[in-house]
Amino acid sequence: MSADAADPVREMVDAVYRSESRRVLATLIRLLGDFDVAEEALHEAFAAAVERWPRDAVPANPRAWLVSAGRFKAIDAMRQRARFDASVAKLAREIEMHTAETATDGPEVEDDRLRLIFTCCHPALPPDAQVALTLREVCGLTTEEIAHAFLTTPPAVAQRIVRAKAKIRDARIPYQVPSPADLPDRLDTVLHVVYLVFNEGYSASSGAFLVRHDLSGEAIRLGRLLVELLPDPEAMGLLALMLLHESRRTARVSAAGELVLLDEQDRSLWNREEIVEGTALVERALASRRFGPYTLQAAIAAVHAEAPAAAQTDWAQIVGLYDVLLHADPSPVVELNRAAAIAMRDGPAAGLALIDAILARGDLQEYHLAHSARADLCRRLGRTADARAAYARALALARQEPERRFLQRRLGELRD
Amino acid sequence: MRYLCLIYDDEKKVGAMPKGESDAFMGAYFAFTEDIKKSGHYLAGEALQPVQTATTVRVRNGKLSTTDGPFAETKEQLGGFYMINARDLNDALQVASRIPSARMGSIEVRPIMEFDQP
Question: What is the pTM of this model?
Answer without folding.
Answer: 0.84
